[in-house]
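Fill in residues.
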């Protein structure tokens, strides 16, 4: 690499098994609406998808939290739904409400999707890879660049429901009534997202994260965590490593509980398990092998609260992971109402060790 060595990147070192004190930090959704500079760039870009598909704008918002806070990792600014968009499903964002898609309710809509080997998919996603290269070139050499994708079950749930729903009722119902159709959709997503992550690595990503945001609301029975979530993720991990042998891959499996978190690394081959805020990190760490890399766990609402509660939770995470490989992060994404001063407080407390 130019201008530094990969071993200078602390997040990569932790993902290789090093215990670093204090641990390196980044935040899920760290480029976002809590930052005034993000809101300004978002207004310039126009629509949310315009922001995602414009490499210059995507680079700018990705760099903003690095300039302000000096996080040890930066994550590509994009969205998990660019993949169904590239597959040919209509995707748009409603201001203040979130994503909307033309719902996939049966075989008719599935058959309209592009096949996994259709070159139009990756022509559509070319601006994302351009952004990855641009961000890597602009980042400080010691900052790890993370790419990402959504896990197949999470992305499929949006494709089927046409939007985010609290209990994923449409996806659960379709998985129960037409399991072969949902499995075919999952298979399509496994193939496309494997290639998507490989191309992010080729463009300059140092590591990637797979977001399983809806593990807590899976269909019932047949070890649904394995069937719909962990096995498809394992296929992505295996497929990526066939092309990028030492690929570092974090898997965040929100809502899967302590037992689910324990299964992530052994069942998927992930380099690290992202820990959501609902899990007691001290309990989890005692049950995990000492070599397992963990990430996250700080409650986003504690970051909003700030003060003594925030200091106490930072201290508890440091105590639970002392001498163990851990990346400091939230247990879900930062929310728009989070005060910037509280992020500064969190990092000051963390960096004191």
């Amino acid at each position: 690499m130019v201008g530094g060595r990969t071993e200078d990147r602390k997040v990569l070192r932790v993902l290789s098994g090093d215990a670093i004190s204090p641990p390196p930090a980044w935040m899920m959704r760290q480029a976002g609406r809590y930052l005034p500079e993000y809101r300004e760039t978002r207004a310039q870009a126009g629509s949310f998808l315009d922001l995602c598909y414009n490499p210059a704008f995507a680079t700018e918002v990705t760099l903003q939290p690095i300039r302000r806070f000096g996080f040890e990792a930066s994550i590509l600014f994009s969205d998990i739904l660019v993949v169904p968009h590239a597959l040919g499903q209509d995707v748009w964002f409603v201001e203040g409400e979130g994503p909307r898609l033309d719902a996939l309710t049966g075989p008719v809509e599935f058959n309209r999707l592009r096949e996994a080997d259709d070159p139009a998919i990756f022509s559509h996603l070319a601006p994302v890879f351009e952004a990855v290269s641009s961000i890597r070139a602009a980042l400080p050499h010691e900052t790890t660049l993370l790419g990402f994708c959504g896990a197949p079950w999470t992305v499929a749930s949006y494709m089927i429901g046409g939007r985010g729903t609290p209990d994923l009722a449409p996806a659960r119902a379709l998985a129960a009534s037409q399991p072969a159709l949902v499995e075919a959709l999952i298979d399509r997503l496994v193939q496309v997202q494997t290639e998507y992550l490989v191309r992010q690595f080729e463009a300059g990503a140092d590591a990637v994260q797979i977001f399983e945001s809806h593990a807590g609301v899976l269909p019932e029975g047949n070890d649904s965590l394995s069937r719909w979530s962990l096995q498809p993720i394992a296929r992505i991990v295996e497929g990526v490593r066939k092309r990028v042998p030492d690929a570092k891959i974090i898997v965040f499996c929100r809502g899967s509980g302590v037992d689910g978190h324990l299964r992530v690394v052994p069942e998927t081959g992930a380099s690290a398990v992202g820990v959501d805020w609902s899990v007691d990190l001290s309990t989890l760490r005692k049950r995990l092998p000492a070599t397992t890399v963990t990430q996250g766990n700080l409650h986003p609402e504690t970051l909003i609260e700030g003060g003594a509660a925030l200091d106490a939770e930072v201290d508890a995470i440091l105590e639970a992971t002392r001498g163990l490989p851990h990346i400091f992060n939230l247990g879900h994404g930062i929310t728009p109402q989070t005060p910037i001063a509280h992020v500064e407080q969190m990092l000051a407390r963390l960096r004191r060790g």
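Strands lie at 73-75, 91-94, 98-101, 144-150, 207-212, 249-253, 272-275, 293-296, 326-327.
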